[in-house]
Amino acid sequence: MELNRRTVIAGAAAAGVAATTLGGTAHATGGRKPVKTLFGKLADGTKIYSWSLENGGTRLKVLSYGGIVQSLEIPDRRGRYANVSAGFATIDDYVAKSPYFGALIGRYGNRIGKGKFTLDGKNYQLSVNDGEQSLHGGAKGFDKRVWDIEPFVKGSDVGLHLYYTSVDGEMGYPGTLKTKVTYTLTRHGDWRVDYEATTDKATVVNLTSHVYFNLAGEGSGTIEDHELQIAASRYTPTDAGLIPTGELAKVAGTPFDFRKAKPIGRDIRVSHPQLVTAKGFDHNWVLDKGITARPEHVATLRDPASGRTMKIATNEPGLQFYSGNFLDGTLTGPSGRTYRQGDALCLETQHFPDSPNKPKFPSTVLRPGQTYRTTTIHTFGC
Ligand code: GLA
């Protein structure tokens, strides 16, 4: 979190401002152990827990189903909290109809064309669940799995380790993939996500998080007034099935140019063939910094009305910006309000979609003996 936010929180607490949905006041310091409560049960009786974390003025609720961020609360410039992530109030809704709200995505974030790829001369057929394509790991991806959760308090950080082992052949992917994701809230209120995975056979992997953000608060309407900046001079145009063509196209002179912050709604209705195909923005930006050893700043999202901002840093080479194009008013969030097209957006740090079939894209292959490691940090301010 940035300095000005800390000052605001301290100021709000001093003034007794505590307009929160959790009923507490804003805390500028934390370090308290995450709290576990029963959220609901799956049809087979499996208990699903909700873990509540709070640190540095940020509050997070995480489900053992899908590692889902069910709620992410941050203050605005007057210290008023809002849940800035779209989701549901019940486990039944998550199981029945979630478009990946808040979930961990694996084994492969975004699409693999026709669900096919060849690795070391072997052909693999994945679960196909999006027309002809395999999307977000197939019909039962990591978003629909029950994760083992271990809470921790380490120095001034609080967090959760989430574990899931995907068996050899699951959804068509080779190798037993042992996955560990760590959600950390730092004393500055940053939300950090560390992904780790190992395999016992050569495979492909591309993990990400599918939180739908609306910095004005979920259920508050469109994100078209949010300003977005993405440090990318190129993006990967797609075909009609939203599979990259392989081209790295320049953003200059197109609606895809977010190098300087601009309102998302400014160009979203430009009749550009790529916007028409995707019904808005649903593309992978090729981050100028490339793959980096450490997370580097790649995007800033800002809601001018509330003053809330979110900065994203990652060591990944790509960022999928999805403008909530498929939300159609049929899903109701915890606020009791429906989500219409563009009422929330996703910023998914990743390797590029369909990399297993695009030899020129950075490789997503993981081999036995290697450890997959990526990190994404969300810094909130106001
Ligand atoms: C990703 C994809 C979108 C869509 C959403 C979920 O962001 O790129 O095309 O599938 O997930 O609805």
UniProtKB/TrEMBL annotation:
GO-annotated molecular function: aldose 1-epimerase activity; carbohydrate binding
NCBIfam families membership: PRK11055.1
Name the record gives this protein: Aldose 1-epimerase
Catalytic activity: alpha-D-glucose = beta-D-glucose
Residue positions of the active site: H210 (proton donor), E348 (proton acceptor)
Pathway involvement of the protein, from the record: Carbohydrate metabolism; hexose metabolism
Known EC number: 5.1.3.3
Family: Belongs to the aldose epimerase family.
Residue numbers binding beta-D-galactose: N110, R111, H210, V211, Y212, D282
Record keyword Protein biosynthesis present: no
One GO location term (cellular component): cytoplasm
UniProt keyword list: Carbohydrate metabolism, Isomerase
One BP term from GO: galactose catabolic process via UDP-galactose, Leloir pathway
